[in-house]
Specification:
The chain is α/β, with parallel strands linked by helices and 485 residues long. It contains 15 helices and 21 strands.
């Protein structure tokens, strides 16, 4: 094994690679028999064969959805729905050095690293890339998940042949020249301005609220910004103090009618608690327009990586100068005393780092996804990439159909995900209320005393970051920590 092979990135196989193991699994669940002219190797046989070649020595599947509906083409050429048990899977294999560390418990390549980075998401990848490429430092990256990319991780859906995100939709947008110039190094970018629609009272309306939204929902005929501004002012609730929670912010911006139709039910589903119990920042970040602009973001830079986000991370962490060593499926807390780090950048949950203190844990909201595939169709399931369902009768929040995105390969199928908010699961969104803010302040005071450890990113700072904010935060932190080097 060469030194270069020691940096291992876990790749999601293309649909053709997965089909060998995946298709018989799906067919068995559907109750059908194998076609007599096709022979499929079992996952065990494939695993053994690849292990002999020294490529893969461990393989398993991870279910990430509660149910999956596959809609095959019937003999009448009409799609019919068949409900099957969960089959949304990712190929959990490992190769070369990472596998040897996890299975054979071999040591790391070095006894000491200039920098150790905990987490291979946006913040961790930026820190690792900067130290390795600008300062020629040795960097160890350890990631608990079986892949790099954090919540941005995407891969080709094995049935639909469409690139999907394992942890929900991610849209890159920024106002920062510094961030835009930085990310250009790692991918070609496809221009894309994100637009969201909501299903309200049986109608599809633009979200965020704009002139079209108000005209359709309330049967008025607003034609310009002046009229829209006047309409909003007539609806808004005015307080003799600054809005103190998410409910008051929304009422002060759009008034009771739009609040009850759009803001209140969606926020309650998303956060599992009424807006009156959430900080004002929750609804303050939702734009409201007094014109016809139906873009969700107004940033000057909006684009998607041509080959997906995972490919961006592969470029960021590539090992051209042999400085970066990446270990996935590795728990930092199990190996922290086995490796010597000059400085550590920790991007995980701050309360997990200090779990030994026995304090209460911080609260997060998570997401659960329900995957549905429609085979043999050039059409779309819904009219836009993201359709919000704010009405309370729907227990989910939105439906995402990735085929709409312009950086997708051609496909004769489609796949969409119904998204549910959850109290349990992967930590996505910090819950901004007084209890959590006060508790985080206690953890933060401990973090400031931790020698040679920097806490970076949304989980470590218990703060929601857009993608560009995470990148900018990491870039600025790197410059601050290395000033004068």
């Amino acid at each position: 094994m060469t030194r270069k092979s020691a940096v291992a990135f876990h790749h999601q196989p293309a649909a053709s690679d997965v089909a060998v193991a995946h298709e018989p699994h799906a067919k068995q669940k559907l109750g059908s028999k194998k076609s007599p002219d096709k022979t499929f190797a079992s996952p065990f046989t494939i695993c053994v064969a690849l292990a002999i070649l020294g490529v893969v020595s461990r393989m398993e599947y991870e279910t990430i959805s509660s149910t999956t509906t596959i809609m095959p083409l019937s003999s009448s050429r009409k799609a019919q729905s068949v409900l099957v048990p969960p089959i949304m899977t990712t190929w959990k294999g490992s190769n070369t050095y990472v596998n040897q560390w996890n299975e054979a418990k071999l040591p790391f390549r070095k006894q000491r690293y200039d920098v150790c980075v905990v987490g291979a998401g946006l913040s961790g990848a930026v820190i690792a890339e900067r130290y390795a490429n600008l300062l020629d430092r040795s960097v160890l990256v350890v990631e608990k998940r079986d892949h790099i990319g954090g919540n941005c991780y995407d891969f080709m859906d094995p049935d639909a042949g469409v690139r999907v995100s394992k942890y929900g939709a991610h849209l890159f947008h920024t106002t920062y020249d510094k961030v835009w110039n930085y990310i250009q190094q790692f991918s070609e970018w496809t221009p894309y301005e994100h637009k969201v629609i909501g299903l309200v009272n049986g109608m599809h309306v633009p979200i965020p609220v704009n002139i079209h939204t108000v005209n359709r929902l309330f049967g008025v005929n607003i034609t310009n910004e002046r009229e829209m501004t006047a309409w909003l002012q007539s609806e808004q609730v005015h307080y003799d103090h600054e809005p103190r929670n998410a409910e008051q912010v929304a009422l002060s911006r759009v008034g009771p009618r739009l609040y009850r139709l759009l803001f209140q039910p969606y926020t309650e589903k998303q956060w599992g608690r009424p807006p009156s119990e959430l900080g004002p920042e929750v609804t303050a970040r939702i734009p409201v327009r007094n014109n016809y602009d139906d873009r969700y973001f107004g940033d000057p830079y909006q684009a998607l990586p041509k080959h997906g986000y995972t490919a961006v991370f592969e470029q960021m962490l590539r090992n051209n100068n042999d400085n970066i060593e990446v270990h996935t499926s590795t728990d930092y807390f199990q190996i922290r005393h086995s490796v010597d780090c000059g400085r550590t950048y920790y991007t995980g949950p701050i309360d997990a780092y200090f779990a030994h203190l026995g304090w209460e844990t911080l609260q997060y909201r998570s997401l659960r996804f329900e995957r549905h595939v429609v085979l043999h169709t050039k059409n779309f399931f819904q009219p836009a990439f993201v359709v919000n369902h704010p009405y309370p009768e729907a227990k989910f929040t939105r439906i995402v159909e990735y085929k709409h995105l312009p950086n997708q390969p051609p496909s004769n199928h489609t796949v969409y995900f119904i998204e549910y908010s959850s109290e349990t699961g992967e930590p996505y969104y910090p819950v901004p209320n007084k209890r959590n803010k006060d508790l985080y302040a206690k953890y933060q005071s401990m973090a400031e005393k931790e020698p040679n450890v920097t806490f970076v990113g949304r989980l470590a700072n218990y703060k929601y970051f857009n993608m560009d904010d995470a990148i900018l935060n990491a870039l600025n932190l790197f410059e601050q920590d290395t000033k004068g080097l």
